[in-house]
C-alpha cells in the first residue's frame, strides 16, 4: 500500500480543519482528492508529507509505504520525501531553485539516494528530462528555470518529484496555473508516467473534469470532512451530495468544453432521477 490514511484530524489554533478523514492509495492506483477552496485537501497532502504549517497539530494515522508519519521524528519523515513520496505543486517555481540549472537539480536526488558519481548523476538528469518529454533534453538540463516556458517548468518539477523513484506521487493542483492546451498535455504526461512506472497517484484538484481525466477513484472533502468516496464514474453520473452535483454542473458548463476533456469524456446525461435527488450526508 503506497498510502494509508486513517482518521486524520488536523487542528490549527484549536480549530478543526480536517476531521477524521480516511482513505488509501494502493500501489499503481490513481486517486483524486477533490473539494472546494478551504475543504482541507492541501492540508491533507501536507500531513502526508509531514510538512504541516506551524501551529497545526495532526492526529490519527498516515502511513507511507508502511512507515508512520504522524508523530514520527522530523528526521525519519524527511527520509520519506523524494525516495518514498514525491510532490508536484501548483507553482513549479516553489520546487525549483532559480539560481541552479535544471540539470543540477534533477541530479541531486541521484547523488543523495543512489550515491551516483557526478557524471552518472548528470546522465540520470538527462534521462529524467527525456522521461517527462522535455524538448532537447541534453540542452535543456543546462538552462535555468527562468529560461524555459511554464509548461516546460512544470515538466521539470514532475521529473524532480520522480527523481528518487517514489512509489507514491502527490500532485497538488498541478495544472491550475497553465492554459488549457498545456493542461491537457500535462494530464497526458501524468497518465503515461503513472502507468509506465506503476506509481500510486494522489491527484488534488477542485476541477471535476480534470479529476475524471486522470483518476479512477475519488475522495471528496467538504469543510474538512469526507463526504463521498467511490469511483469517479459514480461520482459524475450518480452524485449523492449537493457539493458534487455543483461540481458536475460547473464542469459541464465550463471544463468539459475545453481540451482537458473530450466529448466522449462528458458524463452520462441519463442519470436516474432518484440519484439526482439523493440525500446529502
Explain the overall architecture.
There is one protein chain. The protein has 281 residues and is of the alpha/beta class. It folds into two domains: 1-84 and 170-190 and 197-281, P-loop containing nucleotide triphosphate hydrolases (Rossmann fold, 3-Layer(aba) Sandwich); 92-165, no CATH class. Helix content is 38%, strand content 23%. The strands form two sheets. It has a six-stranded mixed β-sheet, with helices on both faces. This is ABC transporter ATP-binding protein.
Summarize the structure.
The chain contains 11 helices and 10 strands.
Which features characterize this protein?
single chain; 281 residues; alpha/beta; Rossmann fold; 2 domains; six-stranded mixed sheet; four-stranded antiparallel sheet; 38% helix; globular
The strand order across the widest sheet is 6-7-8-3-9-10
Number of domains: 2
Helix content: 25-40%
CATH level 3 topology of the largest domain? Rossmann fold
**Strand content range:** 15-25%
By secondary-structure content and strand pairing, the structural class works out as: alpha/beta
Distance from N terminus to C terminus (CA atoms, Å) equals 29 Å
Query: How many β-strand runs?
Result: 10
Task: Please outline the helices and strands.
Blueprint: E1 3-12, E2 15-25, E3 30-34, H1 41-49, E4 56-64, E5 67-68, H2 74-80, E6 85-88, H3 102-114, H4 118-131, H5 137-140, H6 150-162, E7 168-172, H7 180-197, E8 200-205, H8 208-214, E9 217-222, E10 225-231, H9 232-237, H10 242-253, H11 273-276
Helix pairs in contact: 3-4
